[in-house]
Amino acid sequence: xxxxxxxxxxxxxxxxxxxxxxxxxxxxxxxxxxxxxxxxxxxxxxxxxxxxxxxxxxxxxxxxxxxxxxxxxxxxxxxxxxxxxxxxxxxxxxxxxxxxxxxxxxxxxxxxxxxxxxxxxxxxxxxxxxxxxxxxxxxxxxxxxxxxxxxxxxxxxxxxxxxxxxxxxxxxxxxxxxxxxxxxxxxxxxxxxxxxxxxxxxxxxxxxxxxxxxxxxxxxxxxxxxxxxxxxxxxxxxxxxxxxxxxxxxxxxxxxxxxxxxxxxxxxxxxxxxxxxxxxxxxxxxxxxxxxxxxxxxxxxxxxxxxxxxxxxxxxxxxxxxxxxxxxxxx
Length: 331
What we know:
This protein is α/β, with parallel strands linked by helices. The protein has helices at residues 30-38, 51-56, 59-64, 83-93, 110-113, 125-139, 161-171, 193-202, 216-226, 243-251, 261-279, 281-295, 302-309, 315-329; strands spanning 8-10, 13-15, 19-21, 43-44, 49-50, 75-79, 100-105, 146-151, 175-179, 207-210, 230-233. The chain starts with 7 loop residues before the first strand and ends with a helix. The mean pLDDT is 94.
């Protein structure tokens, strides 16, 4: 079988591979990205960063832009609704040397949409194109390509991904990622991979996809069915960074390894340890509560452990939970 894992040329640069960690608010921080890289992710995207907050120097925004020590290549995703502000945000992050910058045109969260950002831009293709043009021009002196992540459309009655993608490329986007759901669907229903196949056929730039990528087998099926240049894994990586290692084996023609609970727990330990380094123990443990819930989803005794995890506030408490998690599985 053809090796489906490969580098991808985007604009004037080359991405090291085509397995990406998608930007996921509240999850894809430096610690989690670091673990995903260790597990085989080729490129990880930051949580989406507000262009308004970035240009105003908000401290929380600076925390989102902390780069993990093992991130030789990384990507920053920005969101906003004003071309001039997003252009200034691009200029502000050039010194951070991201490999690519991505524009979020897909977030369905109401507070983002109300401000005209995220998937609200799917309703204003002309404005979206103006934003892409302004950002591309701002990044051009540094040779950093701009990519755009979109949805199928606002709802089932306004499917316009093809038009939007075309306008984005004309305005300077070097690649397009399609989350194959509408804003109205949010994260429910089934992703329409045929729409991604359509963009692959019609666009002159690389097309990446996301949606319903929950396992290594799903990635393989996605790559074969769509012909996409790469895949962004979002919820499929939550509590399961090992999905990248498993996927690499499959895409390279091998057999996907089955991870034991002990192996998953070791990844979770590394994840928490890195969080402590970046955030300090107290904050790291509070933030890790939701991560622990993701790691133990579907595990034996998982519900009991999760009930305790929501109150854990020290690394020692989590270590006890890790041990019990492995003991309950018996492997």
